Structures are given as C-alpha cells and as structure tokens.
Amino acid sequence: MTAGAVVEAALRAGIPYVDVAAEIEANVDTFAHFAERALAAGTVVVPAMAFYGGLGDLLVTTAMGNWTSADEVHVAYGLSSWYPTDGTLASGVVSAQRRGGALSAHLTLHAPADTRG
Predict the structure, then answer these.
(1) Domain presence at residue 106
(2) What is the pLDDT of residue 21?
(3) Whole-model pTM above 0.85?
(4) Considering only CA atoms, which of 40, 58, 50 is closest in space to residue 19?
(5) To pair with 82 at 20 to 30 A between CA atoms, which of 9, 39, 64, 66?
(6) CA torsion sign, 27 to 28 to 31 to 34?
C-alpha cells in the first residue's frame, strides 16, 4: 500500500490528504494509523472519498441536520446489483483472504475527550 507514505508526506507538509481508495483494509489501516496524528496536526486525512466515502459523508451531514458534532457514526450500504471490474474482483479475493472470509472489516473511531466539549 502506498497510502502510508503519502499520508506521512502530507502530515509533514501540513496539508490535507484525500484519496479514492475503495479497499476496506486500506481505509481501516489509514484511519487506525493516522487519525490521531492528523487531529494533533490540525489537518485532515480522508481515505475513501470516492463514491461510497463521499456518499456516506453527504448522508451523515444531511442526517445530522443542525447538529454540530456527533460522538460516533455508523454507515452501511447494500447493493441490489453491481458489475465489478476484473481489478475489483481480484482485490475482493485478496480482501476476503485478509479478513479470513469475514464479509466486512469494522473500525470505530472516537473523538478524543478534549474535543467533545
């Protein structure tokens, strides 16, 4: 995965990192390794801003209405039909092997206590 090296460079430069990764493991890894450092640096690290990531963000923003913060958000999606590319199919095989056959990976992030007001 190349995300780690690019996120490191973005954090050193103090600039946002945004990508379009769709692989669950890459996104979980990016959040797990860089969320706290990005918060401490005052910049953003946003993996998965392709269709599913961006759509989830928009849905949460809409659902929150006038709320200014949330302690936790869970987003899930289901598809009734979809035609993956050969590359996506190959990634799915590797992904399933990494997860030991489980259908999804899960990571819950909590804001540090000092930012909850």
Answers:
(1) no
(2) 73
(3) no
(4) 50
(5) 64
(6) negative
Tokens of 3: 């995300």
Contacts of 65 (CB under 8 A, 6+ apart): none
β-pairing, 17-18 vs 45-46, is parallel
Q: What is the DSSP string of the chain?
A: --HHHHHHHHHHHT--EE-----HHHHHHHHHHHHHHHHHHT--EE---SHHHHHHHHHHHHHHTT----S--------S-----HHHHHHHHHHHHHTTT-S---------GGG--
110 part of a folded domain: no
Q: How many domains, the chain? A: 1
Domain-located, residue 111? no
Digitized pLDDT (tens) for each residue of the chain, 117 residues in all: 578 899 999 999 999 998 877 677 778 888 889 999 999 999 888 887 765 666 777 778 888 899 988 888 887 767 778 777 787 777 778 777 777 766 655 555 555 554 444
Domain of 74 in residue numbering reads as 3-100
